[in-house]
Design goal:
Blueprint: H1 7-22, H2 37-49, H3 54-62, H4 65-70, H5 79-87, H6 91-104, E1 111-119, H7 126-132, E2 139-147, E3 153-161, H8 169-176, E4 186-188, H9 216-231, H10 238-251, H11 260-263, H12 266-277
Parallel strand pairs: 1-4
Antiparallel strand pairs: 1-2, 2-3
Length: about 280
C-alpha cells in the first residue's frame, strides 16, 4: 500500500526550509542553543496554520513524532519559548520571508489585485457578543496584493479599521512592483482605493461626487473600468476575495495577540502561511 505524505508534513518541510534560508541559526550569540531559530519559527508558522494556541501547539508537537523529525527537534519547546519566537517575528523579517519565497518561485504578474479584510479583535462569537451586550469599535485590517495568475499574496500590510482603504494603495503598489511583468502593469481594486494616488491605468472605479464625474482623468478611468468589466478583466478582482475567504476559513478570522504590535503582525503572518499552504 502506497503511503501518502501528510499535508502537515509538507507544510512543516516548507516552513522549515524557508526559515533556514532567511534566519540565522541562533537569534543570539549566547542563546542556550536548545533550539535553533528556524526550528522555533517553523513551529510558530505551523501553529498559525493549525489555529492552535501556544499551549496547544506544545501538546500537538508531543503527539506528532513525524513533524518533530522533519524539524530536527530533539526536545519539545515550551509554550513560552514559542511565544518569544513569535515576538521576534518583526515586519522586516516577514517581508524578507515573503520575498525569499516568491523569488524562489520566480513569480511574475501582469495584473495584481488589491483588497483589505477585517479580523476580529476577540475570539468571542457574534452570538455571545450580541447576548452579552458587548461590542468592539475597532478591528485589525489586513491589506493584501494578490497576483491574478498565480494567486499568491505578493505583499501584505495591516492597520486599524474601520477606516478608508486609500492609505494602503501606495504601500501595496510599491512593495508588489518587483513582481510585475512589463510596464505598465495593471492594478485592480474596488472603489474604496480611489484617491489622488490612483493612476490612469489603474482599474479602480472612481467615486462619484454628487453623482457626477467632472475631471477628465476620472472620466477616462471610469471608461477604462467600464471596458474592463465588459472584457472580464475587472472581474478578476474576485481572486482576492477568494484569498481573503481562504485565510479566514483556514487560519482564523480573529487575532489572538493582546499587544497592539503583535496584533498588527498576525494578518501579515497569515498571508505568509497562506503562501506556504498553496
Amino acid at each position: 500500500m502506497k503511503r501518502q505524505n501528510s499535508r502537515y508534513i509538507r507544510f512543516a518541510e516548507m516552513a522549515y526550509h524557508l526559515s533556514k534560508q532567511v534566519l540565522p541559526k541562533y537569534s543570539h550569540l549566547k542563546s542556550p542553543h536548545h533550539f535553533t531559530w528556524p526550528q522555533l519559527n517553523a513551529c510558530v508558522l505551523i501553529m498559525i496554520h493549525n489555529q492552535l494556541t501556544y499551549r496547544d501547539m506544545e501538546e500537538w508537537l508531543i503527539a506528532t513524532d513525524q513533524v518533530c523529525k522533519v524539524l530536527d527537534l530533539q526536545h519539545i519547546p515550551d509554550h513560552t519559548t514559542l511565544y518569544r519566537a513569535f515576538k521576534r517575528l518583526t515586519i522586516a523579517l516577514l517581508t524578507k520571508m515573503y520575498r525569499n519565497l516568491l523569488d524562489e518561485l520566480a513569480i511574475q504578474e501582469e495584473a495584481i489585485v488589491f483588497d483589505t479584510t477585517g479580523f476580529s479583535p476577540t475570539q468571542a462569537s457574534l452570538h455571545y457578543l450580541a447576548r452579552s451586550g458587548g461590542r468592539y469599535e475597532q478591528f485589525i485590517k489586513g491589506a493584501y496584493a494578490v497576483g491574478v495568475q498565480t494567486q499568491f499574496i505578493l505583499t501584505a500590510t495591516s492597520g486599524i479599521g474601520p477606516a478608508a482603504d486609500t492609505g494602503y494603495l501606495e504601500p501595496l503598489r510599491r512593495q508588489s512592483a518587483r513582481y510585475a511583468r512589463g510596464r505598465p502593469w495593471i492594478v485592480i481594486a474596488d472603489r474604496g482605493f480611489d484617491s489622488v494616488h490612483a493612476r490612469g491605468t489603474d482599474l479602480i472605479p472612481p467615486i462619484r461626487r454628487n453623482s457626477v464625474l467632472r475631471r477628465p482623468d476620472r472620466i477616462a478611468r471610469f471608461e477604462l473600468v467600464s471596458a474592463a468589466r465588459l472584457d472580464g478583466l475587472y472581474g478578476q478582482r474576485w481572486i482576492v476575495e477568494t484569498v481573503n475567504s481562504v485565510i479566514k476559513r483556514k487560519f482564523g478570522d480573529d487575532v489572538r495577540s493582546r499587544k497592539a504590535i503583535h496584533r498588527h503582525r498576525e494578518p501579515i503572518v497569515k498571508g505568509l502561511v497562506y503562501n506556504l499552504y498553496l
